[in-house]
């Protein structure tokens, strides 16, 4: 297929060993995409500006170092270049023949203005796969509009739905709590890249599957379940439902005696029967308001109040035990502390202690998806700005130390 030869930077054989990715990304979406690929063994070379990716300044810091960056930049090699210089762009073009994929998330047209448009890149390597991630996509009347993940969430429809039902209060629709729009777009880009690589493997050429165009707005919209068909067929504008589900009941978060919240999803007839039994309220099963899912959904507010009055008489740990013994899907609403201590996460290495040279021991999320036969590792944490600059320039461009020193002195490389 023409994959690059493996650069042996990992201790174990992983599913994407032999794939090399050039990241021209910043902030969240493209770097999240490449982190997923790097976690599965791809050799990701991240091109950073001399001052570093802006995300290095985000989130909680220890002595000016971002804890988020420890995860966000992990398993990648960093080379810091000034792409406004001809020498900086020349480095990118000389790295290109050794790469299988380029991932970028500038505004449409920015790569061309930098002198690194797809035509330039493919003049150097015709079969390079290029993944573009942008706010509105590479075409259409909105392509040039500014956007971040939160804008994608608004236009994609999720921000409207992450709220309590209309009329309960007049606060703004709440954010999911993480950069979900960026992350979904990054996931789709990673899926597109692996699909394009498969096509290249299958046919021997990239054919028509060598450009991936992912929009933040479209990535979020694609997750909106029945929102569009319900509007198109019935004129229904889907509304937020708070902690509940509009199509099934009971399924909500309920208060506990110790001030916690517990999720209970007893939204089938057999599960509802188990729930009313552990609540010692068998009469609810014969109540016509709660017979069958449609009736329970129509009377969800009343049912939630009844369940909540019961859950408030017990603490979260006691409730979790009762519900687990009855085999009812349920869980306390986890905080970071709960996640860190969860034995299931620990057993599957989804929560793992990782040594960061600058930060010491740091908790990292594990790698998804899991390939038991080719276990993925956190080979290293997010590196310093340009930590691998000299290494990369020697490995691929065969530059002597003196030339690398000149580039650093000229402000081309850090």
TrEMBL record:
It comes from the Bacteria. GO terms for molecular function: CoA-transferase activity. InterPro entries: CoA-transferase_III_domain (IPR050483), CoA-Trfase_fam_III (IPR003673), CoA-Trfase_III_dom3_sf (IPR044855), CoA-Trfase_III_dom_1_sf (IPR023606). SUPFAM superfamilies: CoA-transferase family III (CaiB/BaiF). It holds the Pfam family CoA_transf_3. Coiled coil: none annotated. Keywords: Transferase. This is Carnitine dehydratase. It comes from Tardibacter chloracetimidivorans. The lineage of its organism: Bacteria, Pseudomonadati, Pseudomonadota, Alphaproteobacteria, Sphingomonadales.
